[in-house]
Amino acid sequence: MCILGFQYMCWKEKVIEMPPADYAKFAVDLEVTLKMRYGFCLAYHGAFLVKTANTEELNSAMADKKKGSAAREDKEEEQEEGYEDDGNSISEQKLPEGEEHAGVKRALLRELELVPIKTMMETALYSSAFFLVFWGPSLLTKLEIFLSGGPLRREFWAGAIPGITGFWLMDQPLLVLEYGPPLFSNWIGPGALSYSTGLHPVSSGCGMTISYRNVIEQIIFWPSVFYLPIGGIIPEWAQGYLFYAIFAPSYYGVMWGSFRAAWFDFRNRKRRQENLPFSKE
Length: 281
Description:
This protein is α+β, with helices and mostly antiparallel strands. The protein is built from 7 helices and 4 strands, in the order αβαβββααααα.
């Protein structure tokens, strides 16, 4: 339920609902249905998807907006025709209103179409990692290879292996499909500027994902803090492989395995104290 609730909140932030008046003023249409209008707004750091209720007033406002854009284009064309180039100056060619952000429009239209499938795939990924990390140890403790060691060692490895595998599962979309980059930036959409956010572990905006970009940034941030002191002595070509394949998985494996072993030891100590006989004094 937590995963579904988290995805629902991120899904609502993916396509932001705005008042019809603001939509008519700032948005560019991508898809229009009988009840809703879907579009995008350009921001300083990129673009983001928006939606609003499709009303008659909004239809007329959008129609007036298109007429105004067409009128401005005709006026600019007349001015360019009347301009005489003396050969010493270079005139800048300006794209028409509809073509100026054509690449952004195509990318965001594709992104709008992929919102449902991305939501389902990310939810399946988080659910798989959750069941692996929390139910995997109980299955591993029943295997014969874990029965020969001591109880603390058994609990540690039963938690460490799912922790390592869980991180590998979570970072596969990023490494294999390049889904979610760039990391640790304020990137929101196509054409955005990117720079480091300093001390903030998670950057603003979900990028071309529903929530995966924010989730993977949070997961990677904590082991990277401990990796930075040794990263300088490792060749640059090997840093990515070492971090994603060995260091970060080992970090979560040790953390989860140690937690399970400590919790197991705490429960055993508590049971022994509860079973001690009361003193006759």
